[in-house]
Amino acid sequence: MSPSILLFLSLFAIADSQSFVGVNYGQIANNLPAPEVSARLLQSTTIGKVRIYGADPAIIKSLANSGIGIVIGTSNSDIPSLASDQNAAKQWVNTNVLPYYPASNIILITVGNEVLTSGDQGLVSQLVPAIRNVQTALSSVSLGGKVKVSTVHSMAVLSRSDPPSSGSFNPVYQNTLNQLLAFLKDNKSPFAVNPYPFFAYQSDPRPETLAFCLFRPNSGRVDSGNGKLYTNMFDAQVDAVHSALSAMKYDDIEIVVAETGWPSSGDSHEAGPSVENAKAYNGNLITHLRSLVGTPLIPGKSVDTYIFALYDENLKSGPGSERAFGLFKTDLTMSYDVGLAKSSQQNPPPTSPVTPAPSTSWCVPKAGVSDAQLQANIDYACSQGLDCRPIQPGGVCFEPNTLQSHAAFVMNLYYQIFGRNQWNCDFSQTATLTSQNPSYNGCNYVGGST
Questions:
Q1: 120-143 tens-digit pLDDT
Q2: Is residue 114 flagged as an active site residue?
C-alpha cells in the first residue's frame, strides 16, 4: 500500500473516531421546530456537540441519550446573583444540571457571553466570582471534574492579533484575565472565543482577503514574527489567541471556538454574505477540522468548534446577515450542503442543481489554467499537511517535471483526503473531476468512490 493511501486511511480513521464539530442552537426566532424535532435532525448529522445560550429544559431533555455534548449557559443578568450568593449558584446547578445529567451529556457551562468587552465594569468584576461559585456548586454534587465551567469572549478581548505571533490581550482586562486564566488552568477548563473571518473580510473586502477567509487557494500570509505561513484567517485568529495566552504563560489552556460562521444572505450594502461563500467557509472549515492538521502554532490537533448556527433566526436585530447564519432552514432542509449528513440517504434535496461526481473520481486541473494558479494550488495543498514528496526531485511523480503534472497529483490528493466532496475539488474553479485514472508508470493517484 502506498504512503499516500496509508495517510488517507489513517486520517479518516482518526477523524471518524473524534468529533470536533459543534453547532450553536440559537432561539431568537418565532418559527423554530420543536426541540424533539431538532434533536432528531442533529442525530442525523455528524455534529457532536451543541451549544445553547441558556438552559432551556425542553432542549436539554430532547438531547437525552443522544450522546451529543451539550453546552449550556447562564445569562449576563444572572452573574450578579451567582457572584454574590453561593446558594444562588447551587440553585442554578440544581435546577439546570442535576435533573438532566448524565442522560443529557452536559459538558460545559458558560457563565455569561462576551462580558469583558460589554463595557459593564460591575459585571466584569463579578465574572470570576460567579464562575468560581458555579464550579463550587458542581463540586458539591460530585460533578466538578465532569462538567467544566468557563465564559465566552469576543475577539475584541485582544488588543493585537496581526501577525498571529504578536497576539496579546487588551491590558484593560489584565486583572480579570489573571484571575480567570488561573481558574481555567486549575480546573482544566477551556478558553472560549468567537472568531469570525466573515467580519475580518467585511473590514477588508478585497478578493485576496475573501480567498484567505474562505480557505480557498491563496498565496498565504507569512507571520513576520516567526516566519510561519498562514493560508486561512481562521488559523490566524486562533493562533493570535494562543499567542495571547502564551504571553501570559497560559499556553497549555485549551482553546474552544464557541462561535464562528458565515451568513448565506444579507443587506445589499454588506460585503460577503451569499450561499456560495457560506458553503465555502463552513464546508472548508469542517474539512480543515477533520484533517487534524491543526494550526501553525497548534499543529496535529483540531480545536472544538461550534458553528453559528443551526437555524436562521428571524427575530434577531441588526443587518440582514444576522438573520441568515443557519446551516438549516426551519423547514429542516439544508441552507446548503457542507457534508454533515451521516449518510447520503439522510440528505434533504440540495437547494440548487449539482452535477453528480463520477462514482470513482480523481481531481485534476482544468485545461488552460495559468502556471501562477497551478503553483498557488500546489502551495496551498502542500501547506495542508499532505505528503508532497512524490512530486519533489527523485519522487515517483516528479517526472514529467511540469506544473500541470505536479498540480494534478497534489490537487487530487487533497480532494481524496479531505472528503471527496465537490467543493474539495474547486481550487478557485480551476479544477474538475474525471473518471479517467491519471496514474502513470510508478506514479499512482489515490482514487475513491464518492
A1: 999 999 999 999 999 999 999 999
A2: yes
| Pick from 126, 38, 41: nearest CA to 77 | 126
pLDDT at 74 over 50: yes
Instruction: Report the DSSP pairing between strands 168-169 and 21-25.
Output: unpaired
Known catalytic membership, residue 259: yes
Q: Report the distance separating Cα 397 and Cα 389, nearest Å.
A: 9
Please enumerate in sequence order all residues whose Cβ is within 8 A of that of 46, keeping only pairs 6 or more positions apart, or say none. 19, 21, 340, 341, 342
Distance spanning both ends of the chain, measured CA to CA = 21
Calculate helix-pair angle for 3-17, 275-291, nearest 10 degrees: 100
Hey, which residues does 229 pair with through a beta bridge? 222
DSSP state of 298: S
For 27, 78, 312, the CA distances from 42, given in Å and listed in that order, are 15, 29, 15
Q: Please state whether the predicted TM-score (pTM) of the whole model is above 0.85.
A: no
Higher pLDDT, residue 4 or 31: 31
Cell of 282: 463552513
> What are the residues whose beta carbons fall under 8 Å from the beta carbon of 343, sequence distance 6 or more?
none
* Rounded-to-5 percentages of helix, strand, coil across the chain: 40, 15, 45
Q: Which of 208, 259, 276, 399 is catalytic?
A: 259
Per-residue CA distances from 414 to 207, 229, 243, 269, 387 (Å) = 23, 18, 29, 35, 10
33 preceded by a cis bond (ω within 30 of 0):
no
Q: Taking a C-beta distance cutoff of 8 angstroms, is the pair 110, 258 a contact?
A: yes
438 within 8 A of 412, measured Cβ to Cβ: yes
Q: How far is CA 82 from CA 87, 88, 320, in A?
A: 8, 6, 35
Grid cell listed for 212: 484567505
Using CA atoms, how far apart are residues 296 and 419, in angstroms rounded to an integer? Answer: 22
List the grid coordinates of 395. 519522487
pLDDT exceeds cutoff 90 at 144: yes
User: Which residues have a Cβ under 8 Å from the Cβ of 201 and sit 6 or more positions away?
Assistant: 209, 210, 213, 233, 271, 272
Query: Distance between CA 397 and CA 392 in Å, rounded?
Result: 8
Starting at the edge strand found earlier in the chain, the sheet holding 448-449 runs: 431-434, 360-365, 448-449
Q: Which amino acid is at 336?
A: Y
d(CA 35, CA 23): 15
Given the residues 36, 114, 322, 399, the one annotated as active site: 114
Which helix (H) or strand (E) segment holds residue 169: the answer is strand 168-169
**306 forms bridges with which residues in the sheet?**
22
- The DSSP letter of residue 254 is P
